[in-house]
Amino acid sequence: MSVRAAKSNNSTTLPARRQWLARMSALASVAAVPLWLPRARANSQTVFGNVPGTALVIGNSAYLPAPLGNPVNDARAIGSELQKLGFSVSVQLDAGRMQLIEAIRQFSSELAANKGVGVFYFAGHGAQLASRNYLVPVDAAIRRPADLHDKAVELNSLLQALGAARNQTNIVILDACRENSLDSELTGQGLSQYDAPPGTLLAYAATPGKTAPDSIGRNGLYVRALLRELALPAASVEDVFKRVRLAVRLQSEGRQVPWQSAALEHDFTFRAPEQSAGLTREESERQFEAELAVWQKVEFSKNPASLAYYLRRYPSGMFSELAQFRLESLFVNNRQSFIRAAWTAPAAAAIAPNPFSKGTFLADARYAVGDSYSYRAIDVFSRAPGRHFTETVTAITNSNVVFNDGSKVIDFLGNDVKSDLAVFASPVQFLPAEYAIGKKWTTRFERKSHFNPLSSDIVALNFSIKAKETISVPAGTFDAFKIEGQGITSSGEHWQSRFWVAPEISRRPLASELILEAGGRHLMTERHELIDFRERNTPAAERNRVGQHMTARLNVCNRSLARIGSCYSTS
Q1: pLDDT (average), residues 544-560
Q2: Is 43's pLDDT higher than 60?
Q3: Omega before 65 within 30 of 0, i.e. cis
């Protein structure tokens, strides 16, 4: 019994000149930093050997007085599929509390011994209280909130056991956001958001704070989508859950949106690629050109199915953040459910902060003519002062935001289309559609200089959201997501970008850095810091509205302590 795991190779996947490919390969061999280029598809992964796989699958249906229809069937189906994939599987049906605790103990012990890949799946009732998530056994008689601690199993106990096992990869799937309540007065609000611990992918069947219906039919909507994706070869585990999220969202017309947080330290695929060898350079070029052609066909489509077609083919593609944002916009315009995963409202956060998550925020694209952002430029290392500049929105098109009568143009996510130094000949993904710690994405683009139109660079970068940290800039002190990206340009430069973004405060970055290095010399070391900004459609108005709602919600909870899971906090 084993599962196959994969890691990325160092094959270059940019559609570029062969001279550049050779130069970049040579540079990578001598550079002090790793060549961290994005994969074009999962086929560019290479199998590095068999890794033991252990799975614990729980399906709880027999709750009284309100049994659930799907969980036992869902657990059997997931367990069967994981066995086909080579996992050693323990399936526990209608588990009581002691049975669940013992199963988790044995599961973590086996992972500690074999140091392999662990999959934990729970279908049944879950509840949250004071930001803590609880998995509810079938023998739990929950009559008041305190019963959760004594009669259910807290998610933290599972995560701590997995952490103590020190195995390489864990996938925790919580299909525990069921609508059907344990008590006639319970109006459950799903699970609280958790940031995934290191080495873990944490997947929810519904967005934190939301519920999912117990579907009609043998299996739930989430499991049906997950089973389809597990049957496909050569998909990374993160791509599997991205496709599941897309499928469930479309099929439910936005009423159910799965969510995941990933902090994986190793690449992993459930099924090994048919070809373990990496792509040739020519194949990589053709592959990216094919992806670009698909994106160009659907980029401005007003049909969600067109964007979904791209995302199914390229869930982690070079334009996937742009596609996700466009799809979100279409859902809003079509009046489908628009779910902000965990919008932090200061009023509510002050009452009940979530210690387990830094939150998830969608990019805010409600720019208006007259919005302005003033920055100062300083040197990254010496802090020597440079220029000051102000960018003011002077026009908004169907796809772009225009500053200073055209001297700067961005897309609605905030990515450069044109700057004072360059024009970007293909779409850029510096900034994502959704902010959460651990998020990763890639970008690849051509950059043409204003000063020499015949000169252009092709740039490949990998980005990730590393942390949420406090940053002080002239505009004030804020908690911001720290984004880091690095890669190599076709002219042989090593490129490092950093952004500090607080999407609930400002639509533009609070600070950004660009460091270009070649031959051991710094070519650019510039940092921009926000001095002042003025926005219409300000996020503050939305935060105040949400804060009032959350405060009212918490007051209701305080008056109705007998209802488990209905009191929830923002992250």
Answers
A1: 40
A2: no
A3: yes
Contact 425, 445 (CB under 8 A): yes
Handedness of CA 326, 332, 337, 338 (dihedral sign): positive
Please give the pLDDT value at position 142: 86
E-strand ranges in 166-320 read 169-175, 200-204, 259-262
Helix (H) or strand (E) holding 245: helix 237-251
**213, pLDDT greater than 90:** no
Distance from C-alpha of 417 to C-alpha of 411, rounded to nearest angstrom: 7
CB contact set of 475 (below 8 Å; sequence gap of 6+)? 506, 510, 529, 530, 531, 532, 533
Chain CA centroid to CA 221, Å: 21
Place of tokens 């803590």: 132
Residue 26's H or E segment, with its range, is helix 18-30
Task: Decide: 366 and 541 in contact? Cβ < 8 Å.
Answer: no
d(CA 552, CA 123): 31
User: pTM score, two decimals?
Assistant: 0.83
E strands of 397-540, at which residues? 400-403, 408-411, 416-418, 422-424, 434-435, 440-449, 456-473, 476-489, 494-501, 511-518, 521-534
The fraction of the chain above a pLDDT of 70, given in percent, is 78
Find the mean pLDDT for residues 120-149. Answer: 91
Query: Averaged over 267-289, what is the pLDDT?
Result: 75
Name the β-bridge partners of 82. Answer: none
Report the distance separating Cα 265 and Cα 252, nearest Å. 32
How many residues can be counted in the chain?
571
Residue type at 28 in one-letter notation: A
Distance of alpha carbon 245 from the chain centroid: 11
pLDDT value at residue 414: 96
